[in-house]
Amino acid sequence: MTGLTTPAELAAQLRVDAVRCSAAAESGHPTSAMSAADLMAVLLAERLTYDFGDPGNPLNDHLIFSKGHASPLLYAMYKAAGAITDAELLTFRRRGSRLEGHPTPRLPWVDVATGSLGQGLPVGVGVALAGRLERLPYQVWVLCGDGELAEGSIWEAAEHAGHEGLANLTAIVDVNRLGQRGPTRHGWDTGAYARRFGAFGWHAIEIDGHDLGQIGAAFGEALSTPRPVVILARTRKGEGVREVADREGVHGKPLAEPERAVEELGGRRAAEVTPRRRPRPDGRPHRVPAHGTPELHVFDKDEATRTAFGRTLAALGAARADVVVLDGEVADSTKTAEFAAACPERFFECYIAEQQLVAAAMGLQVRGWKPFAATFAAFLTRAHDFIRMAAVSGCDLRLAGSHAGVSIGEDGPSQMGLEDLAMMRAVHGSTVLYPCDANQAAALTAEMADLGGVSYLRTTRAATPVIYGPGERFPVGGSRVLRRSPEDRVTILAAGITVHEALAAADALAADGLMAAVLDLYSVKPVDTAALRAAAAITDALVTVEDHRPEGGLGDAVLDALADLGPRVVKLAVRNLPGSASPAEQLADAGIDRHAIEAAVRALL
Fold first, then answer.
1. Tell me, which fold does domain 480-604 have in CATH?
2. Comparing C-alpha atoms, which of 446, 432, 436 is closest to residue 310?
3. How far, in Å, CA of 114 to CA of 120, rounded?
4. Where does 303-464 sit in CATH, by number?
5. Is residue 315 classed as helix, strand or coil in its secondary structure?
6. pLDDT digits over 95-113, tens only?
7. For the segment 162-184, what is each residue's pLDDT rounded down to a tens digit?
């Protein structure tokens, strides 16, 4: 350290700067920052190994603020480390500033966006898993608030980390007793939290979070313990300023008299700290493992798209050392078991914990891995907040949902993904793909490996006919014309399972001299607007058919693309509440089978 004599001086400066930047913004959470200032001062000064001039160094530690509302503290740490200036610190929460109300990777030292509580620790587990996979010595430090320990995702993460024995993961819990509206569930009872973490295999350390000696000793103990460690630090919200210390009703508000508070904290300082650094290995930049082109399986008979997905994952794993796969304890159904057999060291079983499934994938991609995470389409809805935040974080995430729609048959509505297209289309910058046959599914799975942002592949349980040859390409944003003639008056727009129903309906109509075009919209987002406009121009009406709810799915994607043209569009979708029945019966009951499509076209004509 330079420019200061003790971590106590650094802690005082962190509090002062949290007060100052929140006052400048006239908003923020300074009291939540002040409670953890001693913890972070000791970490920054004595234990964090990080080169702020080289944030891409693969040997850097990772610091994740799960309590993202304490961002004034994080930004004050960056200032103390010389990463930002005092002038930038005072741009906190202003338009165009990198210092947003909750941290995002707009700053190069931030791994993932936080602020939706209960997410930082689950993501930290993924980063720690990557460290073990890479055999690198970095430590993952996660600052949590006690309030967010009411989130189930925290305990999914705790069990995952304990089961995996992640010795490179340390959770630091700021137990300041107060949440947003009042006391937290357990207040200052750190023992209550210790028992819970201990049950999941963690080593728990209970300390006074304002005793610098205890803090330093706890960090040392964490680094020498061969399992995940949680440091439960009893603190006081707003510590250092009598006006707000341990007081209800001041959460999320700048201090009323910031100058007086700064004076009470000992005034402004010009302290600087240089964390420990690990040089890059051999001085070379970090590279993801080299990879080649996968040899895709050729499908020449009826096969389920989920099977094609699994076999393609195995091929990707053989060709590319950067691909990892995560399963939600349904690998036999999603067919990720194919990858597990081929590349067991890069397969991660997250069990029935969908939030942790997505969070671990987010953490792995922080380190440059290419994660595919798969479960039933219906169950991804549990993890929607993580998916939403993955987009805010700019994560490259590949999700696959199997058993989509009523076509799964007898299992009934609890297992049917009927809202997933709407959910995934609404995610910022997402890609949504829905193949109709095995060769198309294989090509799209391989395409996903290099897609940026959040991408989603919807797969089908039942075997479907092969209509595309091997080796064909299906670019994102494209579509395929499967039926077209000069006499077409209607275009049927479908994706996935309903493509086959649409083709059968078109054939039945053609037998009566009623011609209908069929367009395979395998790219639901981005949708092929040019092809849709062409269809609207040459036919009188459009019929969309999807194994999904009418809200937010394929039909709405078409309407969004053609809103300014105002064509006549009939949407066939699942409007009933399904029960148990065979796949064919389900499609018929929902009004999306070949007979329903044929009837809709006849009604139009």
1. Rossmann fold (3.40.50)
2. 446
3. 6
4. 3.40.50.970
5. helix
6. 999 999 999 999 999 999 9
7. 999 999 999 999 999 999 889 99
